[in-house]
Design a protein that fits this description.
mainly alpha
């Protein structure tokens, strides 16, 4: 029961932070370089013993709600579903199956800073790269697109580390 309540709070909290805080920031012409999408954190932090069906349902609902508020026509939903499906692949590319406990949420405190930065960095970078690629729907000026994805990933990781130190208590 407490786990489900905590998940509900993270679910809606990340949506509120994304929509009303991060998306509301305006840096003028540089806004596209500093608009990280952090909603994937909810899917990526889920326990390893979460079934893929449950993960995909969470990803769909989270992406759908975000798409409604951001007016992105299914971009977040489709990419979040792909990230949820590929989550085990991303995770096991940086560590073995036995290294991480299956009944623990994946946070900076449970998997360590190095694994956190690698796992979440790769996942969030792929998310941003696919998002900007589908949004642009062209490989034209791919270097600028790659740079946007990289800067947004770094700023998103910094924000997520800060958020975890503020909201998650070490045991």
């Amino acid at each position: 029961m407490i786990f489900e309540l905590k998940n509900i709070l993270w679910f809606f909290g990340l949506i509120i932070i994304q929509i009303f805080f991060i998306d509301a920031l305006d840096f003028g012409t540089y806004s596209s370089f500093f608009s990280p999408i952090i909603i994937s954190f909810f899917i990526l932090k889920m326990k390893l013993d979460t079934t893929i069906l449950r993960l995909l349902v969470y990803a769909f609902v989270l992406g759908f709600i975000t798409d409604i508020f951001r007016n992105t026509l299914g971009l977040n939903t489709s990419i979040l579903l792909l990230v949820a499906f590929l989550k085990p692949t991303f995770l096991f590319s940086i560590s073995s199956n036995e290294d991480i406990e299956k009944d623990v949420e994946l946070t900076i405190f449970t998997i360590g800073i190095t694994r956190f930065l690698l796992f979440f960095g790769i996942s969030i970078f792929i998310y941003h790269l696919l998002f900007f690629l589908l949004e642009q729907f062209s490989f034209y000026n791919f270097s600028a697109l790659f740079l946007r994805a990289l800067i947004n990933t770094i700023s998103g990781l910094i924000f997520l580390v800060f958020l975890q130190y503020v909201l998650i208590f070490k045991r």
